Automatic annotation (TrEMBL):
Protein name: Major facilitator superfamily (MFS) profile domain-containing protein
Location in or out of the cell: Membrane
TM ranges: 22-40, 52-71, 77-101, 113-134, 140-160, 181-200, 212-233, 253-274, 286-306, 313-332, 376-395, 450-470
Native organism taxonomy: Eukaryota, Fungi, Dikarya, Ascomycota, Pezizomycotina
GO cellular component, one term: plasma membrane
Keyword vocabulary terms for this entry: Membrane, Transmembrane, Transmembrane helix
The keyword Transmembrane helix belongs to this UniProt entry's keyword annotation: yes
Residue stretches making up the Major facilitator superfamily (MFS) profile domain: 1-473
The keyword S-adenosyl-L-methionine appears for this protein: no
Gene source species: Monilinia vaccinii-corymbosi
Record PANTHER family: AFLATOXIN EFFLUX PUMP, PUTATIVE-RELATED (PTHR23501:SF153), MAJOR FACILITATOR SUPERFAMILY (PTHR23501)
InterPro entries with a match to the protein in the record: MFS, MFS_dom, MFS_trans_sf
Listed GO MF terms: transmembrane transporter activity
Annotated membrane topology: Multi-pass membrane protein
Protein origin, superkingdom: Eukaryota
Length: 490
């Protein structure tokens, strides 16, 4: 829903006269989705998977309906926050269903398909959002979730069979005592403060402003306190130390942060390159991103099949992230006059590599962790994706703004407010025709600096993937089965 709603935001601000609130339309969703991600890992450990997943879908639907029916900007923001909470549970729940219902050796292909569906949704979402906004009303970007979610809930309720785990059969008081109230009291405000600082810093307030510094300081204190609580109270920890210290979990967490950072840098800023440098429309820039997304879809499915056949996920992850890094390196060579064939080919290379390695961390968590800990491991990986995206899209935006101000400050009549208060391309139209070619070159160089961040993140992802243990999903499943039989025999 995040990609579909992005096309509707300009019209929403027009209807509500709420341009100052525009940052909250995406942030409210991201804040709650990130903050509740790890908590849902606990929910899926101690409650029935089907129950938690149905509740998450329902919560997401309620948020969507609130957004669609919102009479004001504040109500819309509340709806976005509710949807984010539900989405946190849906992300982890989808993988939890696969974990509990499908043997480990058969999961890679299914997870590859899951990644492919996510890629298709990322492409189709903005196009659907643009059609609804221009042809009907932006409210249908959110209302449409109601019938889709309703069908999904019926299918889940009637068709999904997930066996209850031993941890779901304990008393309610015991379950509640395991929710790490103290840890989450520090984690959620810490994540919120961190993301708010990143959303506001350099955009709404200066990085050295009291508000941003205070938010970063509070976030640091709260997140350090969360880590301390996890160490001192391991029995109820949201992320127990025995999970956090596992080599493949550390490597997968880092790889997912870097992978998410690189992916969102290019998916977010390539459309800006198409619009600002090539003069494409918003919808056309989304279409021009199809080579990347379609390559990712194909590679995600192919990667799942390869892992399922060979049993090993580490080689595929390393090869995929290496190809992704090569594609990222080529994308930073884009110029004002780059031919269509080149930016199409570069995207295909980048997207194919990204698709090959994208499911590696999730498969690693399922392979190295006991079944009862997998939900927490999966939630940790989704949290890393959201964290990387939130941090580095903000970093990329600040780099772009600072580079543009630095490079264009010598132009006659140029004011920094044209960058900070204008749109991604609108300030170009305010420049005299004689200066536009030079400004396009400067804009291109500024975007190349942003793309360099994506390249660095891709290379760091490759190094992180190299730290993964070389384990086989086939052997791991056999070992877990033997261990279970031993416990039963005792």
């Amino acid at each position: 829903m995040l990609t579909r709603s992005s096309q509707a935001i300009p019209q929403i601000t027009n209807d509500f006269n709420s341009l100052p609130d525009v940052g909250w339309y995406g942030s409210a969703y991201l804040l709650t989705c990130s903050s509740f991600q790890l908590l849902f890992g606990k929910f899926y450990t101690f409650w029935a998977v089907k129950t938690v997943l149905l509740s998450s879908v329902l919560l997401f639907e309620v948020g969507s309906i609130v957004c669609g029916a919102a009479p004001s900007s504040v109500a819309f923001i509340v709806g976005r926050a509710i949807s984010g909470m539900g989405a946190a549970g849906v992300f982890s729940g989808t993988i939890a269903c696969i974990v509990h219902a499908v043997p480990l050796k058969n999961r890679p292909r299914l997870q590859g398909l899951f990644g492919a569906i996510f890629g298709v949704a990322s492409v189709v979402g903005p196009l659907i959002g643009g059609v609804f906004t221009s042809k009907v009303t932006w409210r249908w970007c959110f209302y449409i979730n109601a019938p889709i979610g309703g069908v999904a809930m019926v299918i889940i309720a009637l068709c999904l069979e997930v066996p209850d785990q031993d941890t779901t059969k304990v008393a309610l008081t015991k379950k509640l005592s395991q929710l790490d109230v103290i840890g989450n009291t520090f984690l959620m405000p810490g994540v919120v403060c961190l993301l708010l600082a990143l959303q506001w810093g350099g955009q709404i307030y200066a990085w050295n402003s009291g508000r941003v510094i205070a938010l970063l300081a509070i976030a640091s204190v709260f997140l350090v306190a969360f880590v301390v609580v996890q160490i001192l109270l391991p029995k109820t920890a949201t992320v127990p130390p025995h999970i956090a210290k596992q080599r493949s979990i550390i490597a997968g967490f880092l790889a997912t942060i870097f992978l998410g950072s690189s992916q969102y840098i290019f998916v977010y800023f390539l459309p800006i390159w198409f619009q600002a440098i090539n003069g494409a429309s918003a919808v056309d820039s989304g279409i021009r991103l199809l080579p990347l997304m379609m390559a990712m879809v194909l590679a995600s499915i192919s990667g799942g099949i390869i892992v399922q056949k060979t049993g090993h996920y580490t080689p595929t992850a390393i090869v995929g992230s290496s190809i992704m890094s090569i594609g990222a390196g080529l994308l930073i060579t884009l110029q004002v006059d780059t031919e269509n064939g080149k930016w199409i080919g570069y995207q295909i290379l980048y997207g194919f590599g990204m698709g090959l390695c994208s499911q590696g961390p999730n498969i690693a968590a399922q392979t190295v962790l006991p079944t009862e800990d997998v939900s927490i491991g999966i939630a940790l990986m989704f949290f890393a994706t959201l964290l990387g995206a939130a941090v580095f899209v903000s970093v990329g935006q600040n780099v772009l703004d600072n580079q543009l101000v630095h490079r264009l400050s010598g132009l006659p009549g140029f004011e920094p407010s044209l960058i900070t208060e204008g749109g991604a391309t609108s300030f170009l139209n305010s420049l005299p025709a004689s200066l536009r070619q030079a400004s396009l070159i400067d804009y291109n160089e500024a975007l190349r600096n942003v793309f360099q961040i994506g390249l660095i993140m891709s290379c760091l992802a490759t190094l992180s993937f190299a730290m993964l243990e070389w384990k086989s999903v086939k052997k791991a499943e056999a070992d877990k089965g033997a261990q279970s039989n031993f416990v039963v025999a005792e």
